[in-house]
Amino acid sequence: MRIFRTTATLAVAALLAAGLAACGDGGRSTDTLTIYSGRNESLVGPLIEQFSQETGIKVEVRYGDTAQMAAQILEEGDRSPADVFLAQDAGALGAVAKAGRFAPLPAEILDRVPAKYRAANGQWVGVTGRSRVLAYDSQTLDPADLPASVFDLTAPEWRGRVGVAPTNASFQAFITAMRVQHGDDRARQWLTDLVANDPQIRNNNVQIVADIDEGRLAVGLVNHYYVFERAKELGVGLDDLRVRLHFFPNGDTGALVNVSGVGLLTSAADNANARRFIEYLLSPAGQRYFAEQTFEYPLIAGVALDPALPPLDDLEAPDIDLNDLDTLAATVEMIQQSGLTT
Amino acid sequence: MVRQEAMTEMTGRARVGTRARFGHPYARWRAWHRIAPRPVLLLASVLAVGVSAVPLVYLAVRTAEAGWPRIAAALRTPGLVELTLRSLALTAVVTAGCLVIGVGTALLVVRTDLPARRFFAVVAALPLAIPTYVAGYAWVSLVDNFHGFAAAAVVLILCCSPYVYLPTVAALTGADPATEETSRALGRGPWATFVGVTLRQIRPAITAGALLVALYVLSDFGAVAILRVNTFTLAIFTSFNLGFDRTGALVLATALVLLTMAILVGELLARRTNARYARVGSGVRRPPARIALGPWRPVAVVGVAAVALAALGLPAAAMARWFRVGVSRPGSLAEIAAAMGNTLSFSAAGAALTILLALPIGLLGARAPGRVAAVLDRLTYVTHALPGVVVGLSLVFFGINVAYPLYQTPWLLALAYAALFLPLGVGAVAGAAAQAPPGLEEAARSLGRGPLTVFRTITVPLTLPGIGAGAALVFLTCMKELPATLLLRPTGADTLATELWTHTSVAAYAAAAPYAALLVLLASVPTWLLAVRSGATGPAVLGGGS
Prior knowledge:
By secondary structure, chain A is of the alpha/beta class. Chain A is 40% helix and 16% strand. Chain A has helices at residues 2-22, 41-55, 66-76, 90-98, 107-110, 169-182, 184-196, 205-213, 225-234, 272-281, 284-294, 328-338, and strands at residues 33-37, 59-63, 84-87, 102-103, 124-137, 162-164, 200-201, 219-223, 243-246, 257-265, 297-298. Chain A starts with a helix and ends with a helix.
């Protein structure tokens, strides 16, 4: 009993002391660069490290989920400690830009990237490209069996065999693109037909790719690099995987190329370090990193791709300006009304 | 009990009489004192509840800002009714499952001759160390086609049953066997005695555990997201992701608050008298008689072992498999150590703050039970049922607008933990305070000791073990928390939970496995302490008897 009392007292004292110690380093310095990254640490951490070493700029990175981080930036308002927001998805950048939280980027940065992969008002710029693909199980499906259009996936032969992640931002951007390309009625019809065709709902793209590779799912609508990530985790080549990539041809909406991107917070409009970081992301060294390490498409000219990928220019992507994908709210309502998320 | 209630009634009547006779200030003070007994404790409790209500204030502000059309739009979310019913159904099923497993295991461990019962006593508590997102991933990666309502119910029941098991064990070991023996001596059979005496004695503990389970299920994100059951909390997360719609998400969260309040009011109304079954009196505490299971012994062992295997063995197997199959590896030892250090220090700060805030509320509930104390106590549960992301965002709002110097410091994170987990602390403090009957303090006061001396020599020593147990419970719960931690941690500070999230979101399960294992191992230490303290492993261990 006495021993327990002593232990308990000591434990409480230790708890308090540890709590106090934990709070000693609360001060924030203003001369460092603070990045809010909605992109994963294992994907961009090494590049940021590399930037810090080459420039001597001290960088603080806050990692989080892109959507929740956008909410955080909006909640923080003018007092946000963030200088730069690195986002997984153009939609999140659009939401922050719409709230007036981004400063316009200088033309010399914007001009490095094709106009359709950056904001028309210059408030954010794309950093890497990612293509929507149909991932498929190569053991049960022959490339010849695969549909030429995403619209074919609502046919009876694909009943219960198509994996989708409707809460994923890249899926939403894809539906927005379908609305832009074919009109609201056709997009709504496709969603309705998909729901009627027993779609296999997954939480995210990672699960879709894993389920296809383990033979639990025939095909799935995902971004191209998830298959590369899986090969990397299993320590095998792309060809050793059961899951393979099918790029939709003929400018089909299913082959939309979307971007991850970056924006400069208004509070950091004059922050030279922040500008330097964005320039670094769009430098040959930065772009090469993404091509080699995250298997994404570089957006500046003259950077080599992963050999397993068809060049960006060879993709028969739909001719869609990402700036036209700014009607996310209508898309969300359409997805919800279709019943895909319930 | 009956006599005690009658006494209260008598003193009540006496007081009325006093007030009628004397109209002077002292009588008025007495009258006020009856409405608000222990004013200092009450004030401190209101302040503490205020802290836990920060997220509610935030939700009210944002919902009011949203305006009626926006609220109406969010409430028109298709399937909102199904969503509500599904959440409630999951809550009911999981709570029922936890009651069966929690109470059943507690009875087997404490009241029967179950073989290896000390071992099982600890094992039954250990699932508390496993975050639901780890358990969810584990099941999905090992069992084909494991998803949906039933799957989520299984995972949640396995993870949450210790919330019922631990208090039930404590109540069973703390109960005086003499009451049961009297019942048997008066001619009641074993079953009638169990229902009429034993169950009644442990009912408050069971109810408290069940309430924690129910509200946890409402707020859980990890298991339902991975196992794809669309619940209210998942819909709130989805709403953040769908079109980056903060307002819609927050309006839904407000609806969840109303739902929670309905459950709490229902529970308060359904509760009968505030009966307390403390053992007061001299004599040595002795263990009750154990029931011989006879031919049922093997069945019981297989049952308990099967639950343990599903709850602990399966996640362990999954982690081993991730590590074996994948080639990704966690960062350097220094990185792992840093994450571990942050997990420990943030959780320690969270536990310390939570207990500090829980002290006045728990003491008020124990010393001045009544409507006011009950309402204050239940208010702390409302935030407990909110998803971590909402609580996190509300403290971003609070930090930016009210407590900027604290923003992105561990203190604000500790405040979020306190807001989220206050009921866990309050329950422990109230239980501990019941161990120190006011009669003892009054006796010491009447013998001439000062209030501080009484506090130091009577109250603290008697309540400290229970409060320590509460701190351990909050500590381990903080360790597992993810969404609020992501939003509020100091920039650049990783914890074991955030590292786990980092690696699992890029499918680097092998890199995630060591973090998951470390998190579970570290959380097992306070869990083990809780199991031992509950008295399940036998009498007179760590403050078991006095």
